């Protein structure tokens, strides 16, 4: 028999009779019926749950407040009935002052053994202990005399008060009111009386609570538990210090049987609602009526009705409309707060957990809803209002539940539905969704989510604040979910924690076990603070230089804000660094510490000032390092224009003369990677090297790429097959090691996205989105990369680009500059939609050129553009890239046509963008004997200032002029080639040949001597060929300056420049 359940699923009901009969029909030939003998089946074994009683007895009460009135202790639990052990049944849970030292009465609390529902009930609802004073009926203004008389009251008053309290208790149970509500009721009755007497009432003095999760263990529970009763500070009358005192109660709790027998709980889930931001003014006025429910909702339609299944989880109430910075940072028990008083925020220490809100990092390490701008910069914690909750629910999870959660997370079966409602959960105003897939990533047990709350219907409220001119961002809430252990791995039983007094308290809170290190002494926190300090000082210097600021008065507003930011930053640095290195106890020691801090920070500022590097501001690199980078640029230009012999010779000269071996070695490494010489690049990592220099991060990136490419190209099939997985594993380790760098996290995200691995995508996005404001390492000591030779300018992204898209572009450029073209291509795939079709073609084709993937099957595209300025520039870029694509695959004639068309159609101000094309055009034209065209091409590459050193265009323009027999014009260009700080004998050889042809024998001889200065360096065969063309009969043998008209030395230098 089948029947449909509530959720639309089929439910089959089966018979449970003790005897069954089975009939088996005979084959069609015989058609005989055989009846089997009835089979006796044992009855099903019923599992009978055992109720275990917890006995609670007051042993000791210390430091009672001196009030003058009789005191009472009230015990209360929201979901379970406490009973007093006496002959007559009663649920009254009061201990009177005369019983405080009698160790009675004893109360019992019933718990079902091995019951998961009871475990969750007691896990989320602590036992509440309240201390009251009973103020009897008295004449107005006569309370002091009443105090003294009450100290000697007889037991008859106690009995009367007990009966009165019993009546009140019964009446409160009928009306559904809790103990705290009774208090408020009595206070209202007393205050509203208009006679000469004030009626008897209870006044709350202090409260505390006991976490009952510690009861659940596999052996009988017995322990003496201290519960601190913290005083109430909201009482209407002025209290003295003796009355506002924290009392200590010692309770003896024990059970006859263990509460856990055949059951293990393996995990705990902590759900914390922090605050709601960007809240409309109307909702602030209704804050006490608002609640937020959290439910599981299926991501796919279920049942015959095709509806999304919703499973309620928990609710939060008691919002407070407060300025963000004024909130109490304690996380409290939601159920305890609600039971005490849902509309008043006081006594947080009476219901707090072990967790706190960190105001300085309120909007850090949040997993933001993707591609949503929440206008965080407009939220000022000192002035902005928010709906504050800061409450927590705790749930118990066993292994079966953990597996269900793991499967749901990994398969993306359910999401968390957040609904903001008014009065009742059915009256939903706003809702949002959280995808918990991040908990499917290995080792993740903790995450704070920031999710947008969108109106369910057409919003009836104005989303703009009434007192502010700027619009608010979308309303969002921050919710923290933490598991005691990651749910996607085997969990160890936690009942063992309750058997150990030292471990027992760990179950009250939840902290990230691996990923977040929130310790203020952590080195990563210091690194981040000092990077922020360096960036602030650098930006300030840049603004002063660019704006030509002469005095503080010129930019007073800027410096005012700067001073505030700098002060806050220095306070953090002081607390996290100097105050730890130099602990202080006196004012004098503190002043000495500040003196050391001032000296170190001033030295740091001076170092930043001398090493700053901005547009229009001198580079911070030393002059020798600048020369080294310039020579490496020259060498790479020679190599990429076909002058391999000259490039090798220049590299050897640079190697001999380089003083900064670190930068030279790194530049050599990058050059090898860019030219796909991975075996040569790998030798760099076998040599000892410094690990503390600022380029170590980039070296690790390059090493990762080189290892990956070598494994991919390995002839060993086992190595090549495992190359990708090994690379991902190393990338994860690098991202964790350099956790303040955004590049590895973004690359890892892109790989996860290609594999549609949602947990990895959320985890890596959680990481890199919280690093946007952290300044990373700067690659400002590298020669011009090959990618920048092809595409020297950044294309403008579309207006629809998200913040993540704008952050991905620099990471793509970084990998492209390092020669990691495969990594660059993976990152570019994620945001290529932010560019036009032409720009995407240019970038992808450039990456193909650099990876030597342009073969005969590659099709050159010529995408039409408009006649605007940008359209013409895109047309020229296509000529530039298409020409270089043809050049790469050896079609020099086609390449020359593209380059020549580019030369004729480019504006003078745009020609620096296409330097590589013009150099290659000049070289191709020179080889074909088109010297005039070569001269025109090299002219576009010459530096504007003659003081700027540049070898390649000067050298080949001089040679082109030489071959046109314009010898005098060739001398200045060839002579400038001698200023590049690298000895090249061919330059001197051509100068000697030119002077010899001009009958300047002495000058020719001096030049030739210099050319042959180093016999181990060979002179080009072309020079000897040119010398062979000279007729000996035309050469004067006189080489001294004796009046020969051909030997006039008018200028002190050799060349007469």
From TrEMBL:
Choose any GO biological process term that the UniProt entry carries and state it: cilium movement
Q: Give the UniProt keywords, A-Z.
A: Repeat, TPR repeat
Q: Which residues form a coiled coil?
A: none
Per the record, where are the segments of Basic and acidic residues compositional bias? 1-10
The record's section on InterPro entries has: CFAP70, TPR-like_helical_dom_sf
List the GO terms this entry assigns under cellular component, sorted alphabetically: extracellular exosome; motile cilium
Where are the stretches annotated Disordered? 1-41, 139-175
Residue ranges annotated as compositionally biased, kind Low complexity, are 153-166
| SUPFAM superfamilies attached to this UniProt entry | TPR-like
Composition bias, Basic residues? 13-25
Query: What's the protein name?
Result: Tetratricopeptide repeat protein 18
Tell me the lineage of the source organism.
Eukaryota, Metazoa, Ecdysozoa, Arthropoda, Hexapoda
Gene name linked to the record: LOC108081968
């Amino acid at each position: 028999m089948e029947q449909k359940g509530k959720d639309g699923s089929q439910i089959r009901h089966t018979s449970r009779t003790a005897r069954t009969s089975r009939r088996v029909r005979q084959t069609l030939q015989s058609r005989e019926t055989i009846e089997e003998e009835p089979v006796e089946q044992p009855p099903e074994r019923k599992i009978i749950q055992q109720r275990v009683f917890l006995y609670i007895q007051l042993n000791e009460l210390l430091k009672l407040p001196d009030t003058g009135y009789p005191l009472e202790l009230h015990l209360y639990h929201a979901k379970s009935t406490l009973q007093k052990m006496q002959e007559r049944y009663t649920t009254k849970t009061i201990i009177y002052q005369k019983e405080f030292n009698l160790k009675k009465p004893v109360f019992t609390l019933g718990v079902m053994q091995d019951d998961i529902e009871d475990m969750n009930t007691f896990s989320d609802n602590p036992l509440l202990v309240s201390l009251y004073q009973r103020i009897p009926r008295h004449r107005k203004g006569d309370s002091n005399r009443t105090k003294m008389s009450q100290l000697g009251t007889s037991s008859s008053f106690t009995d009367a008060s007990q009966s009165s309290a019993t009546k009140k208790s019964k009446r409160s149970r009928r009306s559904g009111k809790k103990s705290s509500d009774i208090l408020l009721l009595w206070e209202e009755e007393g205050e509203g009386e208009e006679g000469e007497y004030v009626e008897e009432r209870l006044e709350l003095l202090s409260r505390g609570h006991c976490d009952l999760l510690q009861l659940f263990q596999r052996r009988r529970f017995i322990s003496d538990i201290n519960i601190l009763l913290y005083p109430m500070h909201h009482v209407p009358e002025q209290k003295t210090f003796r009355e506002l005192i924290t009392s200590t109660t010692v309770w003896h709790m024990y059970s006859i049987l263990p509460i856990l027998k055949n059951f293990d709980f393996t995990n705990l889930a902590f759900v914390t609602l922090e605050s709601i931001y960007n809240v409309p003014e109307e909702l602030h006025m209704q804050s006490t009526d608002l609640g937020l429910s959290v439910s599981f909702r299926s991501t796919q339609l279920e049942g015959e009705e095709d509806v999304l299944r919703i499973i309620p989880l928990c609710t939060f109430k008691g919002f407070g409309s407060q300025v963000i910075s004024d909130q109490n940072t304690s996380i409290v028990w939601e159920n305890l707060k609600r039971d005490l008083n849902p509309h008043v925020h006081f006594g947080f220490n009476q219901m707090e957990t072990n967790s706190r809100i960190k105001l300085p990092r309120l909007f850090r390490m949040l997993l933001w809803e993707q591609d949503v701008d929440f206008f965080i910069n407009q939220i000022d914690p000192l002035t902005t209002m928010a709906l504050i909750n800061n409450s927590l629910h705790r749930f118990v999870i066993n292994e079966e539940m953990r597996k269900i959660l793991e499967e749901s997370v990994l398969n993306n079966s359910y999401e968390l539905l957040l609904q903001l409602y008014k009065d009742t959960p059915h009256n939903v105003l706003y809702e949002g969704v959280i995808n918990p897939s991040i908990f499917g990533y290995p080792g993740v047990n903790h995450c704070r989510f920031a999710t947008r709350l969108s109106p369910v219907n057409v919003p009836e409220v104005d989303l703009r604040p009434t007192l502010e001119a700027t619009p608010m961002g979308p309303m969002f809430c921050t919710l923290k979910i933490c598991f005691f252990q990651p749910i996607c791995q085997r969990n160890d039983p936690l009942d063992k924690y309750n058997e150990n007094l030292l471990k027992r308290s760990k179950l009250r809170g939840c902290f990230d076990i691996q990923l977040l290190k929130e310790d203020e002494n952590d080195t990563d926190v210091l690194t981040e603070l000092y990077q922020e300090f360096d960036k602030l000082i650098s930006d300030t210097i840049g603004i002063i230089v660019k704006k030509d600021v002469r005095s503080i008065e010129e930019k007073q507003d800027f410096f005012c804000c700067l001073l505030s930011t700098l002060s806050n930053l220095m306070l953090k640095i002081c607390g996290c660094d100097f105050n730890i290195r130099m602990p202080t106890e006196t004012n004098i020691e503190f002043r000495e510490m500040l003196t050391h801090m001032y000296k170190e920070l001033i030295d740091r500022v001076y170092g930043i000032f001398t090493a700053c590097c901005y547009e229009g501001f001198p580079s911070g690199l030393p002059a020798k390092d600048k020369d080294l980078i310039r020579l490496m640029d020259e060498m790479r230009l020679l190599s990429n224009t076909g002058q391999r012999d000259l490039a090798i010779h220049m590299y050897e000269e640079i190697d001999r003369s380089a003083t900064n071996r670190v930068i030279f070695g790194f530049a050599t490494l990058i050059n090898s990677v860019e030219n796909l010489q991975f075996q040569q690049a790998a030798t760099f990592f076998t040599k000892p090297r410094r690990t503390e220099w600022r380029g170590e991060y980039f070296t690790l990136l390059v090493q990762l790429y080189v290892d990956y490419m070598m494994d991919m190209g390995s002839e060993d099939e086992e190595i090549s097959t495992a190359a990708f997985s090994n690379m991902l594993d190393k990338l994860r380790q690098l991202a964790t090691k350099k956790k303040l760098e955004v590049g590895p996290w973004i690359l890892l995200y892109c790989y996860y996205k290609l594999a549609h691995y949602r947990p990895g995508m959320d985890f890596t996005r959680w990481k890199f989105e919280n690093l946007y404001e952290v300044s990373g390492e700067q690659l400002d000591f590298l020669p011009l990369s090959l990618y920048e030779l092809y595409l020297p300018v950044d294309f403008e992204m579309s207006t629809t680009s998200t913040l993540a898209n704008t952050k991905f572009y620099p990471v793509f450029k970084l990998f492209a500059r390092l020669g990691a073209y495969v990594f660059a291509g993976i990152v570019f795939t994620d945001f290529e939609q932010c560019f036009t079709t032409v720009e995407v073609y240019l970038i992808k084709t450039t990456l193909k050129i650099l990876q030597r993937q342009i073969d005969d099957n590659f099709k050159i595209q010529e995408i039409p553009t408009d006649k605007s300025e940008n359209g013409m520039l895109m047309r020229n870029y296509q000529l530039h890239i298409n020409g270089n694509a043809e050049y790469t695959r050896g079609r020099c004639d086609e390449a020359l046509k593209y380059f020549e068309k580019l030369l004729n159609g480019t504006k003078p101000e745009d020609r620096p963008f296409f330097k590589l094309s013009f150099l290659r055009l000049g070289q191709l034209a020179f080889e074909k004997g088109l010297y005039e065209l070569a001269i025109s091409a090299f002219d576009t590459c010459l530096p504007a200032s003659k003081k700027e050193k540049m070898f390649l265009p000067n050298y080949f323009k001089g040679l082109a002029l030489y071959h046109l027999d314009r010898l005098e014009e060739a001398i200045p260009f060839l002579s400038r080639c001698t200023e590049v700080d690298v000895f090249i004998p061919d330059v001197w050889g051509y100068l000697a040949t030119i002077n010899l042809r001009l009958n300047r024998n002495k000058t020719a001889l001096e030049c030739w001597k210099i050319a042959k200065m180093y016999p181990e360096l060979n002179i080009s065969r072309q020079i000897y060929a040119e010398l062979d063309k000279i007729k000996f009969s035309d050469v004067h043998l006189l080489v001294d300056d004796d009046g020969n008209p051909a030997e006039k030395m008018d200028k002190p230098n050799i060349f007469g420049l």
